[in-house]
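quick q for whoever's on today - can somebody do inverse folding on this one?? i tried earlier but teh output was garbage lol. tokens:
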């Protein structure tokens, strides 16, 4: 449905008294109300079914925490890449193994911050803390707490004007609300998340809330990453997912031109329905990919275990390292020895067996210590994470 817009435009003065238009989004839900035609209703049904299959993923995984550990890291890499970082999943895993990464430290630090911020927010939700402005600020403080962005008021809503695209607000693609309007806009969004003024079906709520957050752009930096995380936090807080297994960044990265176009089309034309169709397709596709990935990983782990067991008497320590590398896919010999409680010579021999079987391979490193990576595991999870 075409509406005049999804908010109001106000004229503001910026540096040098240059005038430009800033957009103040109207409170949710949209008015007039969404037109959910037969096609959108069908998409809603398919997306909900896909989420149901995804939530059942724990029944096929011997240890769902392993999948979540790596899946969260994949999302951190993808969401950060949309914002311009050049770090890969392997770079992040090397960084977490205390090995020197092969990219600028700022990029890896930014992704590492995102992992910590995501895990913090998800833990707070799981422990019963409400999805709220306070939680957004807490997550943001961690997200920008170290490295690049640390000077941009981590954990605080902005007190100055920001913009998207261009060199200044006067030639920007989009100018969010003036800082004096941010708190009111965010308060209205918080109310909507808690079904005030009206209860909204969860998938529709997540779709609308993401656009609204991005349109308000309440922080000086980190809005894109936090806005994407909001979707998963909302699904977990309302119980549609028992574990945080849905992340849309790969879909949004793949279709980023369409993503940005539809966000702007909501603001200028009030076309929420086109955005909703795009969002629901993303949920369905992403949930299906996650289920497929989990099945592939279970098959990989089982096949490799069978191959390691063929070593006979030498299989014991190799199997222990194989299990450790399902949790930490890149290790050096010392780490493998410490985490399996075997000697350095035993770990060295076991890794040698795993390398000959093709289960692990040596990973290039700038440090002295040899690094070993669980090659096929990393390859499966790295699909789509190539830097832009």
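ok took a stab at it. sequence:
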């Amino acid at each position: 449905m075409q509406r005049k817009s999804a908010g109001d435009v106000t004229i503001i003065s910026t540096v040098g008294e240059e005038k430009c238009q800033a957009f103040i989004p109207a409170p949710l839900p949209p008015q007039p109300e969404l037109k959910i035609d037969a096609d959108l209703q069908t998409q809603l049904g398919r997306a909900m079914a896909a989420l149901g299959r995804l939530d059942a993923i724990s029944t096929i995984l011997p240890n769902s925490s392993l999948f979540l550990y790596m899946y969260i890291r994949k999302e951190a890499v993808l969401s950060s890449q949309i914002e311009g970082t050049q770090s890969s999943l392997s770079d992040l895993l090397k960084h977490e193994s205390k090995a020197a990464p092969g990219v600028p430290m700022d990029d890896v630090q930014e992704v590492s911050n995102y992992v910590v911020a995501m895990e913090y927010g998800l833990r707070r939700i799981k422990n019963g803390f409400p999805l709220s402005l306070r939680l957004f600020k807490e997550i943001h403080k961690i997200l920008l707490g170290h490295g690049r962005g640390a000077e941009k008021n981590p954990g605080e809503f902005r007190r100055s004007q920001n913009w998207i695209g261009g060199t200044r607000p006067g030639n920007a693609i989009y100018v969010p609300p003036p800082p004096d309007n941010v708190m009111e806009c965010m308060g209205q969004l918080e109310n909507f998340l808690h079904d005030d003024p009206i209860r909204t079906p969860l998938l529709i709520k997540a779709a609308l809330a993401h656009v609204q957050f991005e349109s308000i752009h309440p922080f000086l930096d980190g809005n894109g990453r936090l806005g994407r995380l909001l979707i998963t936090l909302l699904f977990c807080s309302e119980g549609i997912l028992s574990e945080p297994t849905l992340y849309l960044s790969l879909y949004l990265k793949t279709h980023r031109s369409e993503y940005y176009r539809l966000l702007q089309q909501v603001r200028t034309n009030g076309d929420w329905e086109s955005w909703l169709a795009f969002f629901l397709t993303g949920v369905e596709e992403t949930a299906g990919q996650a289920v497929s990935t989990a099945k592939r990983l279970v098959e990989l782990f089982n096949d490799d275990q069978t191959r390691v067991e063929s070593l006979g008497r030498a299989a014991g320590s190799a199997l222990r390292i194989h299990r450790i590398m399902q949790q930490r896919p890149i290790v050096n010999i010392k780490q493998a020895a410490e985490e399996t409680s075997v000697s350095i010579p035993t770990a060295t021999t076991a890794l040698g067996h795993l390398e000959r079987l093709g289960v692990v391979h040596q990973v290039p490193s700038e440090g002295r210590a040899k690094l070993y990576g669980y090659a096929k595991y990393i390859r499966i999870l790295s699909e789509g994470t190539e830097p832009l």
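fwiw The first helix runs from residue 38 to 55. also The first strand starts at residue 7 and ends at 13. so keep that in mind when u check it
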